[in-house]
């Protein structure tokens, strides 16, 4: 899997499933968006050694340019070659191959044909008439006959409907006004069962070099050397802690200026989630 197709923050790594699942037909009928993408579908891509919105846009070609995000591009990648025997007979087969090859954390159905040109088809998943996931499939590329995925891109999962993110197992936090918060600002997920971490919980803030990961580990399933301090289920809120306004269910996030520990207020009190010495991910 290319870096651009991986979930953009390490906090979401363990939420990815271990294998393909049965899915509905990815394409639905209906009219294309009122204002479809009008740019070229054959856009040169450039691979950069960073994981920034700029690099994701450079790697995702036409798919990245077709997005209509409220925030910044979240994932993007391509072109990734399919082998000579993988290509499909139709563009829709090419879209199915995208899901089979990468198992991305995006909706597996509900896509429409937004545009066709130059031996390529742009499929889009729209929310409120705006493209949040885009996949360009191409026909008969060099050494790869048939239809297959060429470029792809998506907006932040928080811009998808709650029913979709719930089905993907994503925990989307809200701000003090109840608005969904981008996962590049704050996100969380339970530990992966196949690593024996299901009793732990991970919380991430920021993106790239500013990313911080905190861990709730009441069962002590992680090695102590991975964390800057032990998890504490009952602490006094520090005087210098400030409420972020971010919440998920009954959790409320507070942080101090040094951000070494996440203080999570619950109906039962305050928990101290220590930061990880480095991003912890189940493999």
Explain this structure to me?
The chain is mainly beta and 283 residues long. 11% of the residues lie in helices and 29% in strands. The chain has helices spanning 53-59, 61-66, 91-102, 162-167; strands at 73-77, 112-117, 120-127, 130-141, 144-155, 186-190, 201-205, 212-216, 242-248, 251-255, 261-266, 269-274. The strands form three sheets. The chain has a five-stranded antiparallel sheet. Strands 9-10-11-12 form a four-stranded antiparallel sheet, with no helix packed on it. The chain is elongated, with a radius of gyration of 20 Å.
In short:
This protein is 11% helix and 29% strand. The protein has four helices and twelve strands.
Total helix count?
4
Rg, Cα atoms, Å: 20 Å
Strand content: 25-35%
Q: Could you say which structural class the secondary elements and strand pairing correspond to?
A: mainly beta
Categorize the overall geometry: elongated
Catalogue the unreliable spans: 1-21
Beta strands, count: 12
Q: Tell me the distance between the termini.
A: 13 Å
What is the quaternary state of this protein?
single chain
> How much helicity do the residues have?
10-25%
SSE pattern, N- to C-terminal: HHEHEEEEHEEEEEEE
Main pleated-sheet profile: 5 strands, antiparallel
Mean pLDDT: 88
Biggest β-sheet: strands ordered side by side in the sheet: 1-5-4-3-2
List the helices and strands and how they pair.
Elements: H1 53-59, H2 61-66, E1 73-77, H3 91-102, E2 112-117, E3 120-127, E4 130-141, E5 144-155, H4 162-167, E6 186-190, E7 201-205, E8 212-216, E9 242-248, E10 251-255, E11 261-266, E12 269-274
Antiparallel strand pairs: 1-5, 2-3, 3-4, 4-5, 6-7, 7-8, 9-10, 10-11, 11-12
